[in-house]
Amino acid sequence: xxxxxxxxxxxxxxxxxxxxxxxxxxxxxxxxxxxxxxxxxxxxxxxxxxxxxxxxxxxxxxxxxxxxxxxxxxxxxxxxxxxxxxxxxxxxxxxxxxxxxxxxxxxxxxxxxxxxxxxxxxxxxxxxxxxxxxxxxxxxxxxxxxxxxxxxxxxxxxxxxxxxxxxxxxxxxxxxxxxxxxxxxxxxxxxxxxxxxxxxxxxxxxxxxxxxxxxxxxxxxxxxxxxxxxxxxxxxxxxxxxxxxxxxxxxxxxxxxxxxxx
Amino acid sequence: xxxxxxxxxxxxxxxxxxxxxxxxxxxxxxxxxxxxxxxxxxxxxxxxxxxxxxxxxxxxxxxxxxxxxxxxxxxxxxxxxxxxxxxxxxxxxxxxxxxxxxxxxxxxxxxxxxxxxxxxxxxxxxxxxxxxxxxxxxxxxxxxxxxxxxxxxxxxxxxxxxxxxxxxxxxxxxxxxxxxxxxxxxxxxxxxxxxxxxxxxxxxxxxxxxxxxxxxxxxxxxxxxxxxxxxxxxxxxxxxxxxxxxxxxxxxxxxxxxxxxxxxxxxxxxxxxxxxxxxxxxxxxxxxxxxxxxxxxxxxxxxxxxxxxx
Amino acid sequence: xxxxxxxxxxxxxxxxxxxxxxxxxxxxxxxxxxxxxxxxxxxxxxxxxxxxxxxxxxxxxxxxxxxxxxxxxxxxxxxxxxxxxxxxxxxxxxxxxxxxxxxxxxxxxxxxxxxxxxxxxxxxxxxxxxxxxxxxxxxxxxxxxxxxxxxxxxxxxxxxxxxxxxxxxxxxxxxxxxxxxxxxxxxxxxxxxxxxxxxxxxxxxxxxxxxxxxxxxxxxxxxxxxxxxxxxxxxxxxxxxxxxxxxxxxxxxxxxxxxxxxxxxxxxxxxxxxxxxxxxxxxx
Lengths: 262, 310, 284
Fold this sequence. Notes:
Chain A is mostly helical. Chain A is built from 10 helices and no strands. In chain A, helix 1 crosses helix 6 (103-136), helix 2 packs parallel to helix 6 (103-136) and helix 7 packs parallel to helix 10. Chain B has 2 domains: 5-224, 3-Layer(aba) Sandwich (Rossmann fold), CATH 3.40.50; 228-305, 2-Layer Sandwich (Alpha-Beta Plaits). The interface between A and C is medium-sized, with 33 and 29 residues.
């Protein structure tokens, strides 16, 4: 059986059911929250006071940070750990491991279905909120910024999804570990000079978006961003390498002895 | 005979727990029953054959190929797992279609074959309903439909009749017989001997992970009948019953419990004893409150065969 | 003796005819979490601020040891010390983590294993079931917060540390962590009762905690009114701690509002739990 056929089949099989799931609606709600706040800012008439000011810049940076450094990693964490975790809990993993398609293609197909839905969920709030925020703050290049930031959001979500898929397959307490990784390790290490800060996904995300780099504050000098091209390539590499590693483990691991509670 | 499923010194353990040990079997077309008490290793064997588990030692092959993570050979295997594993939020048809697709059927083929499979198990009218709304028996039938939708050559059915109502037991048994008649290899595992007796004459007895015996079902049935039985009778006339029964042929031993009402009877011919008991009760107009057999089951047969009992 | 169904343990032991009928459910919940990997590490990490506080008290009591001299310089009374202990962001974050660790699968697991008919076919009332579940999470929240605080409270007179102790401070140390623990326990279970997936419930609890903080902070900054910080659980904790220990509130809204936020939200969560469990109870 052809791996590509397996990938496409699995993608199509999971794509629609994920959209219909209640959880997706909950995530869409959280994705829309900044949009609601921006609308509040606009209708409360405080937007004029923010235009061209440092408070406006902070608002914009916080807005970007919500999606890129908080919401997207959490979405990816859930996606990654539940990709196979839910199948194991419900014992439906036997259908995937008993398939006539290579296991790698099944995993990749489901990964692409889940991650594409989560990227679109993030976009559901991000894109209108970004455009509205840009208009509210009277930012001149709002469309370009939206395209740029949207691309970075998609790529960072993909990279985080791949990382957490690998973690979810590799270890049991992946949720807690993932939370510590994103809100512990990535937050602390970014302030360390040298090579260490490069050991985070966040570093490359920030390198692609200047607004996320702290240009003010006592720690500003510690951020040594990578070039945009390098950051782009590394994020792609992270996505590919962790997906590959996850596929490799899944291809050769036994799941027949799994029980409901891990 | 062309043996599709072969094992050679097959062993599997989970840490310190032994699943199966040193199994060497050859299973060909037709129906073979895998019979054993709970925890004997039947499901482990099924999962090894279905490519879900990797052998710790030895080998298992299907059509000459090892099934673990071998997607090519999994095309010809239809596995019915023991656990209630279903995508609860999917409609029944989508679930069967998904399994069809996972085994390489095209979209059009999957659509037609899934409806055929659902019709075979009597679920065509509820094909659009979510599996979560099904009863346990319906879910079993749904999983059976998913197992046979892609027309595999080898069927591995782990307790397929569990939770099925009597009418559908007969229909499913007929379905399984028809699969075998079409040259398929069907391996059914169960701990209930009567389930297998109606389906096949070839049985493999498995106990504590080992093949204990294999052969004709009638031999197994005779063992069940002839092995020493302990039958309990609760009666206010226990002593009178004891006095009458001790002289009768099928009774090897009689014991009255401390409560004075419970009588334990040892026999090697259970059916004859029941006839004698019934006649006695009617003739002497005795009262019997309860009649039970502690060991009219497979476990007791195994205990007897392994020498744990007298 | 455990009652097992499809590998899922429901409770251990016979239901008691007198006293707390759901004790077996509570004890199993506690045992299951206690035996999880990293449980003790997590609880020790949460108790870490309490340990630091204890060391500070000792340092204050024994100035000749010359420990933490700069930190103890400003410690003049116990209420300020306890205010900083309860208001610190690390403790509130760890309370969320412990809640997720101990509580996210307590009810989600029952939903997944379809265990409600098993519970309510026994002589168990909703309040028994809920009190057992809340009790299990409450136990793990109280362990690394209440116990260290009470130990520090006991250490002050024991080591004769020169810290003024008032009745309000003592009452605050005894009551405040229990209020917080009850809030987090009921909040965690109220979120997790809506999903069969323990992963999803854990993430949503964390998401709510962080998102409410972000929204509160942002709204307050944009609209210039600190009252919006009532959205933020973390800010409420620091404000409520200021109320309890009569410290200067860090934010410009009545500290008593923050304090009463917790019992009010606890009641809301308990109401939600009661309604949802009632649905399962009557649908058996």
